[in-house]
Amino acid sequence: MNISHAGIRAQTKVFMPRFRRGPVTSMGCVIVIGLSLPFLSGCGTIKVQDPAGMAGQFQALDGGWQIADKGYGGPADGNWSYALGGRASWTDYRIDCRISLVRPADRQDGMELTSFAYYHALGNLGGYEAAVVFRYESPSRQYRVALSSLWKEIILWRPTGGVLQVQPYAFETNKTYDVSVAACGAHITVSVNGEEVINWWDTADPVLKGKVGLARKEGASYFSSVGVNCIPAQRDTPPAHRPQFREVKWHNLQWFFDGKEPVFVIKNNVLDHMKFIPGYRPAMYTFNYISDWNRFYPTKVTDFKVVEAGKRLVTDTVAIDPDTNKQSKITCATHLVVSFDAATGMYTYDQDCKVTIPPEESAKVSPAWDHGDAVFLGGVGSAQTRDPKAFRALYQWSVFQADDGKYYKIPMNHNGHYLSSSTANGGPLNPTGGIWVVVDDPILSPCIKIRGLATNVTNVSAGHCWWAYDMHTMFSPTRVDNKVPAGEYVTKVSYIGMKAADARALLSKASFYKPNDLSVRIPVYAAGVGFMETFDKEVLLASPHQEHRLWAGVIDKTVGHGDKFSLRLDGPTEAWTTTGGSYFMTGYGKTNRVTVWVKTLNVTGEGPVIGFRRWDNSYGEFYPSGLTGTRDWTLWSFITTGPIDCFGVTLYFRNGGSGTVWMDDFKVEPITGPLPEGVQLGKTYPVNPPASDVVLRWNGKGAEDAVLDESGYGHHGKFFGGVSWTTDNGRRVISLNGTNTYIWPLCSPALRLQPPYTFVLDIKPESGGPLMFWGWNFYWHLTGSAPKLGIGYQLHAGTYTITSSQPFLTTGQWHKVVLVVATNQFRVFCDGKFIETVKADSKAGDWGLYCTSTWHRHMSFFGAGPGNMTLTKDNPTAGIKGSVGAFTVYNRGLTDQEIAAMGGY
Q: Residue 767: CB partners within 8 Å, gap ≥ 6?
């Protein structure tokens, strides 16, 4: 027979008296385990009306829970804190709680948008005081009903479904609410003060058993009574899903709901937290369109409107070229249709992009258009970490259909794999039936499907980006006389889901598509805060790994502290890795103890260095050890002094000078409370600077393949390509061969080159080329050609125009060049004489980009190249020819008098 929820509530009503003031005892607490009524499913009963009884029956998973007159709970620090009771085997039950909201939540953050690193499923939303937890199997399988007086709402959430239901409710502080949650099979209902607010079926991946619990997040809240009772097993069947799409301003963002469930959000024309199954995890975010990258980047265009809602959702966006003050007639329009397929039970996102180019604008557009850039939430993360709390990556493989009709698979990695006519680069892709599937989710796999090509589009490609795990879908218009002809160009892409069983079958029959070099191995950093890293791992590029590589480091398999593995750094170099949310749940504290075992061989400079850079504001700090020369394994320990207090950081391991450094058994542990007596605080850069305003000084010192920085800031330079030492008139100078030369300085926040600053350079040039390269920031050039060269400045933005001085350097001769850089100009001096003032919009460099991506974002002098940062052999791309005798960087502008005192070369 069918039993309605009204009937269930009638059979299981529990009287919950108000909390009695006075001495607390456990006399009122009764627990009955395993009720044996034949029509009830296996569960137990809890009845608790006093704080001490709740503390006895609900085990707090962390600190902060208090027993007070108001009940069991107390203030919270902004992180969800659980107290669990009952048994993991309990199935169908109702939990009734009396919750007092005493102090409101004061945070409104926690909306993770466009995240490459970690999948939270909106689990850290700010603004909630208290919650009821039920069907708790594990941190990744549970339900949570949360109350918010800040947002005036109640939500139902689960880790693998995100926010499932949102219901407005006028919660207020200094008030008490009776909250009732019934979990009966896949059917969940929630009532507040006797009024039903949520009635929902979990048809995607229901959690059917687990403990009950209480939870607090922000502000202050108390539970004054709790009752748990069995209810009849579910005999109803879920109703057919009928979509009801609507636009909702939720948490100050433009969300689109299906009924009460948020399905995706649009911000700056980026579709984020896209769901493909009702009630199941957000799986993707993607740009709504880009097309011509410079003109129609999503952050530049925010105009869109909802054309149709209800059974399907349709939005239209039209953008006019923002780079020409809306005078250009080039337009880019997107037509997005979101619908629900009842046959598959999934959402489909059909995205059509139309670019219109008038004849007078045909020479002004990019020859390759990026229709969308999809990122798979859960596609990046550590599969190897020792941290038991770490999130396990969901998406490990990509499958595509080639133009021969066969399916091929590649791992999610940084190997490029742009699919086109080039077989050496991971293709070719079938442009009319090609499909990308990212596989390993137990329920679904998100897919990108190209829905055919217009006649004036000649090529299409899709592939993982070189520096991230995002996937670009690129279209190339047919060009005439090397120009994109005027006309209307339409590209069509669908974002859909595939059932996990079908995706696994597709993966099984797909052949492995070999990358360029199957022998490439990547050293990885895999441990998190509080976990020791022994550097005993590396993974093949061709394997399905989910690790961030440890740039430029080498895992030595013959030398280790207590084993045969360690991280080795040869010469002035550094290795870094992005840590934090990708690897572990706990973050870095404001104060941390760092320990590492170090071995050195002929090390100069300041010895091994450990560095940290915050994710949020690029605050950086480096801790030199002073362990130079040759030493056997030595324990180095220090306490961080800077305000890290960050969920994740970029972590550095640096060998500052020449020689070889081995590091092993590395560990970071947050410290709370006062520091232990006699503890040594770490000393950060600079180390004994001869002049604090000099942040780099290269002057003829260094090993065979490196130049030593004498400033004390550790900006040593490593030689790449045709760079070597030579002697010129008895002086040791750097020789540059002009074809594949550059020097990579170890970077830090002290070398941001923020105006005002000054370059002082002894140079004998023979040809023009890059004087300094800093991808995505700016460049300095030697301009012109023999016999006279000038100095030019170029921003990595807009038209990339080089602003140059007049030619004043004679090739083949030594000169002392001084550049004094201000925010709107730079002044040029040569051999003690003023040359001219050049107008230029000077900017500070973002040193954090150097640490979080691949070679095109790092700083290099006298040329440009990868710096051992790519997975394939990549030669230097440019360089100047000549000699450099000395190079100094000041973090201020020198005066005319100081420059005159330097004299000529």
A: 738, 782, 785, 786, 811, 880, 881, 882
**Beta strand pairing status for 59-60 and 44-48?**
unpaired
Say if CB 860 and CB 730 are below 8 A apart.
no
Distance CA 116, CA 108 (A): 22
Residue 59 identity: Q
Residue type, 385: T
Question: According to the 3-state scheme, what is the secondary structure of 512-561?
Answer: ECCCCCCCCEEEECCCCCCCCECCCCEEECCCCCCCCECCCCEEECCCCC
Give the separation between CA 707 and CA 869, rounded to whole angstroms. Answer: 20
Task: Report the alpha-carbon distance of residue 728 to residue 386 in Å, rounded.
Answer: 54
Tell me what the mean pLDDT of segment 400-420 comes to. Answer: 68
Q: Which of 279-288, 470-479, 591-600, 624-633 has the lowest mean pLDDT?
A: 470-479
Q: Of 249-253, 578-582, 755-759, 855-859, give the lowest mean pLDDT range.
A: 578-582
Burial class (CB within 10 angstroms; exposed 0-12, middle 13-18, buried 19+) of 727 = exposed
Distance CA 331, CA 487 (A): 11
Cα 654–chain centre separation: 23
**What tokens appear for 62 in the block?**
């962390």
Amino acid identity at 261? E
**Position with higher pLDDT, 397 vs 855:** 397
Burial class (CB in 10 A: 0-12, 13-18, 19+), 69: exposed
Q: CA-to-CA distance for 362 and 612, rounded, in angstroms?
A: 47
**Residue 519: its pLDDT value, please?**
63
pLDDT tens-digit series, residues 742-764: 998 988 889 999 999 999 999 99
Residues 6+ apart with CB under 8 A from 231: 8, 11, 12, 40, 41, 92, 93, 94, 182, 184
- What is the rounded CA–CA span in Å between residue 456 and residue 436? 24
- Provide the token pair at 724: 């070597």
Cα Rg, the chain, nearest whole Å? 31
Question: Which tens digit of pLDDT belongs to each residue from 596-620?
Answer: 999 999 999 899 999 988 876 778 8
CA 25 to chain centre: 50
Would you say 792 and 806 are in contact if contact means Cβ atoms under 8 Å apart? no
Cis omega (within 30 of 0) on the bond before 23?
A: no
3-class DSSP assignment, residue 565: coil
* DSSP-based three-state secondary structure for 902: helix
DSSP 849: H
Residue 148 has a CB neighbour count (10 Å cut-off) of 24
Measured CA to CA, the distance from residue 380 to residue 385 in angstroms comes to: 13
Tally of CB atoms within 10 A around 128: 29
Cα-based angle 666, 395, 144 (whole degrees, multiple of 5): 85
- 611: its two tokens: 């560095």
Q: What is the DSSP string of 718-742?
A: EEEEEEEEEEETTEEEEEEEEEEEE
Q: Which residues contact 495 (CB under 8 A, 6 or more apart)?
A: 274, 284, 286, 348, 349, 351, 374, 446, 447, 448, 449
> 30, 204, 221: which is closest to 129 by C-alpha?
221
CA distance 875 to 720: 9
Q: Are 165 and 198 in contact (CB under 8 A)?
A: yes
> Which tokens belong to 263?
């399905």
Which residue stretches of 442-532 are H helix?
500-509
